[in-house]
Amino acid sequence: MRALISVYEKSGIVDFASKLSDAGVEICSTGGTYDLLAKENITVSQVSEVTGFPEILDGRVKTLHPAIHGGVLARRDIKTHMEALNNHNINAIDIVVVNLYPFEATLKKTDVTNEEILENIDIGGPTLLRAAAKNYPFVLVVTDPEDYAWISEKIIAGAFSSEERRKLAGKAFSHVATYDSVVSGWLRESTDLFPEEFSLGFRKISDLRYGENPHQAGAVYSNVPIENGIVNAMQLHGKELSFNNILDANAAWAAVSDFNEPTVAIIKHTNPCGLSSNNDLVKAYQCAFEGDPVSAFGGIVSFNRLVDKAVANELKSIFYEIVIAPDYSSEALEILQKKRDLRILKMGDNKLISGSKLELRSVSGGVLIQTFDIDDTNEDGWEIVTERSPTDLELEDLKFAWKVAKHVKSNAIVLTSNNSLIGMGAGQPNRVNSVHLALRAAGEKSQGSALASDAFFPFPDGIELAISGGVTAVVQPGGSIRDSEVIEAANKLGATMIFTGKRHFKH
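RESULT FIELD:
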C-alpha cells in the first residue's frame, strides 16, 4: 500500500505515519510534512520524487500532477485504468491524508492583508480530498486527526469495510464543502449579498437529546467561521441545553442586545414576558419580573450587564431555566450555582449578529434568507400624526415600546410604562385580539401607558380599544388605506400617535 500525506495541522501525524510505516505502507509527502517525518526517522519520499517535477510557485503547485492524481483516481477494477498506470509508470495511491491551509484562522487575525488571506486558500488539498473521496472504494481518505487512531488500527488489521470507507469519503466532501463555503463567503462580502448560488458552512457543536419534541432528533451547529451568537456562549453551570432552550436563549440575548441602557429581559416561548431598562440593574430586573410574574416562572432571564451579588440574590428565589449575561461576579456565581439545574451562560463580548449579515429560516424544500432586522430607526424621521404631541415621558415610553415590539411575534402589541414592558399580545391572527391580551396582562397598569404595534392598524377598532383601556400614546408604522380613520379615532379620544414608516414583523 502507498500513502500520500500532506497536512498543515501536524498534531498526531508523526505517530500515525509511524504506524502506517510499521504496517508496510510506503509514504510520500510534501514540504513541511516531509521534513517532519524525515526528522523523526520515518521512511518517506518527497512528492517531487514521484512526479519528477519540483514544487513551484512558492508551493502553490506541488501535488497537481498526473503522477499523483492518476494514482489516486485509477479504479482498480478497470483493466484499462491499471494498464494506463503501468504504461505511464504511475504507482497507485491507496491512502490520502490531507488537512487544509488555515483559511478560517487567517480571517480571524487582526490586521490581516488581502494577500495573506489569498495565500491561505488551499487548492491542492481540496483537490486531493475530492479525488480520493470520489474513488473511496479503493482509496482511504483521511482529513481529521481525531480519526488517526482508529484508522491506523483498521489498517494494521486489514479490516476496512465499505461502509467505513464511504463514511470517510462523505466526511472529506463535507470538510471541503465547509472550507469552500468560508472562502466563497469571504469573497461574497464585497460583491453580491444574494448570489444565484448560495452556500454556508456549519460545524457541529453537539448533538441534542432531542429536537423540539422528544420524538424529533436534533443537533446544534455554528456558522463557520463566525464564533459568536448564542450557540457559542460559554456554559458555566447546569444541565445541557435543549433545542427549545437554545431558541429561547437566542431570543433573550437578542432582546437585551438591542438596548444600550442596562436592560433585563425575561423570555417565555421566544417572546418577552418581561423587559425593562434602568440604570440600577436590580431595579430593571424587578420591573421586568413584575411585568408578568406568572409567565416568568420557568422562563429565561437575560442581562446586558455583568450580574453581581445583588442581582443574583434577586434571582435565587425564582425558578428559571437559564440566566444569560456578559459575565458574572464570583459572588454571583457562588449564589447561582447552588441552583443545581440552572443553566448559566456567559456571553462575554459576544455580539448577536456581529460578522454575519444574514438570517436563515428553513422551509420545506429550501431556505429563506434575509438581512437581520437591525434596530437602526432614525427617530428624527418619526411623524406625529395627531393633534396632540406626546409629552416627554410619553415619548420615552414610545421609543422603548418600539424597540420591545421588534422582539414580539406578530401581530405584536406591547404596552410600556417607565421603560418597562407591562403588557403584551403576540402571535394572534388579528391585531385587536393582541390588544385585548396586552390590556388584560397589564390590568390597572395600562392607565397612562404607551402602545407599540409592529405593523399598521387596518381599522380604528384596535386604537379605540387600546385608548379605552388606558393607553394615551401610540407608535406604529402607518401605511393603512384607513390611516385617516385611525388618526381621527385617536384625535377624538385625546391620544397622541406617531408613525415610524417602518414595521417590525416577526413571524
